[in-house]
Amino acid sequence: MYCRSNKECGMYWHSGCVTITRIYKYLSKFNWEPTKEDPRNIWIPNAGNDGEWVNPDDCVLHDKSCFFGLQLHVLEKHYDKELLSFFSKLGVKSNPSLDDFLKLWKSWENADRSLSQSECQTFWEFIVKHWSSRTEKFLSENLSKLPVGSDSNELLFLDKRDVFIADDLFLNDLFEQSSSHPLFIWYPQPSLPSSPRQKLLEIYGKIGVPNLSEFVLKYGLSSINCVGLEQVQPKEIFIGKGLIKLILGFVADPSLQMEARTRHGALKSLVDISFFATPEQITMDYCPSLSSGDFLNVKVSRMMCWDRENAKIFIQKLEK
């Protein structure tokens, strides 16, 4: 029914949308399927009665997000629903692929513009749904910019090396107040079933986004007067069963989708900590370095300091 080349095929001499649609309907009605030699180009009509022949790889049957109109030819916009199954026989994919989503993301990066919440949500919902070792490798090697929040509903693109996961509430507030631009990776608020916050943060970590607490350079602990340090029992500073139950209740929230092993690890890190009291004021320097070579210097005096690397918490001892 079809022919071996575009030149041999009478169908390719037609340019009227109505005529070509009739031919497609005829082929679909009789369940025609192409052989390896048959050409598979798809006719895309334009505003008039003309159009162009395009490669099936440049087409897609559906685009629920409506974001791929400039990148792909969406056939459901041009043809009736009953013809779409026929186009799948010609090699047209049903929905945009991982490659298509990456091209879309790169086009947003290169456009030098802000990103809407809807655009960002659509992209990362797809990534969460199709997460695999291949997806991880794909994103790690190809994404150079990632979204950060801003004061408006629009999101900004920043170099992946200058974006952090806000895993420490104190540091998060501290750097938000001290930085002239956003630093923390975007995630939907509140967490959504289609893109859970915990899952997104795990994905960000696997593609190279560091936790802020692990990235900052800490200098303040060396200034503590070691002679005045006194190890204290957790119960003396209200670290007891009540607090542990409270933390367990928080991490068990279904919306976090945190695995049992991760929950136990969070509690174990608290149980294994050593606590020290000091009469001296605790001063900390936080200095994360950015890809530009700049440093964000933040100094703060605190009544309590957590040295995660050495599993120690320092508390300023107040006079009674």
TrEMBL record:
This is Uncharacterized protein. It comes from Nicotiana attenuata (Coyote tobacco).
